């Protein structure tokens, strides 16, 4: 019977991971097209307003359930009372937050000098914030069953409609209103879709005993999540005032591009690994093997992607029409890219601590990183303008070694050995691209596409020649050993 359960878990994990990768790849293509269209048609200022307002809503989201949903996922067995309590407490918090934010609209408008279109976007995101909260319990049911493929279906529908709507609206000249319309379309359709897949009849009620049990894990977990938000999204709100929307636009453009590889690869693996480690948290040997595999797999994909982007982003801004306006953000992109590379080695261990229920370690790390961010960002911004924050971000990324150090106290895990072949091969690939640039002008889309293909060939060849690693076999092994 136990073997049947393990086999079922393996099948669900593989299907969930592959589904998340498909969704990320699909969304990345849509997002790339939308990003290109929007950053061609819209000014850095409008792009900066969208990023700033979105950061406001991200902050509100972390107050929405005080970690109760994560508690439901982490627990081995949940009761109806716990589900009902989570939903009720979440709705009380969310409705209270939304009412306060609506009342504070004049303050928000005055502080950021938002145009009327920015206020409409702000209101639309508040409404979508409420609709999104109604999806929490159906999503929890699917995550506990490790059926991410069904969540992925909802995300594909949402992202398709969002990107298509925002592209069409931008082409019609609606400017910032493009985001407002797209946000509302995504929220309504997403809610309808997930209830058609994982129906749950909302129930109201609070059990004090269930609430205490859920909060024992939820509060430290949510506190860590809030610190992460305080470190990232709240900094964006500060920058919106300190360097202006155009500066935030440059920072947002550079950061989004630089984080594409870790968002697609690392985030999806981590999302599946959290409930999986929670299920097998007593078997440290299995968890150690799993983490070493994760480091190897994600390094095989993330490292060459980031190295390649560092060499090809400048030609990309020259090839795409009307994209040269983002050339000022290239130095920021290079800094964020290096930061993403470093973070990819330490971030999986933060998820390890959460899955093992050791949220106090996560909280301590997040508190340390948040203090660094807020102590260093204001003076760095005053000294270097919008280039100050990327350097602070890079410095904080270097301190992720603290997460690795804590993880080695819990598990006997190898860190450097699984990633060495991929670092070396990616550097060889980067050197080859640099030499190609000396002989070939990357002045056309065809030339860029050719260089990308040659880069993949150099990377795969280096792995095979120097380390006897077959890159295609890695991809097959990923499916087999997820």
From TrEMBL:
| Keywords attached to this entry | Cell membrane, Membrane, Transmembrane, Transmembrane helix
Its subcellular locations are: Cell membrane
Q: Does the keyword Transmembrane apply?
A: yes
Segments traversing the membrane: 20-41, 47-73, 85-107, 119-142, 151-173, 235-253, 294-312, 332-353, 365-384, 390-407, 419-440, 446-467
Q: Which InterPro entries match?
A: Poly_Biosynth_Transport (IPR050833)
Q: What's a single GO CC term here?
A: plasma membrane
Topology within the bilayer: Multi-pass membrane protein
Family designation: Belongs to the polysaccharide synthase family.
Query: What is the protein name stated in its UniProt record?
Result: Polysaccharide biosynthesis protein C-terminal domain-containing protein
Q: What is the lineage of its organism?
A: Bacteria, Candidatus Roizmaniibacteriota
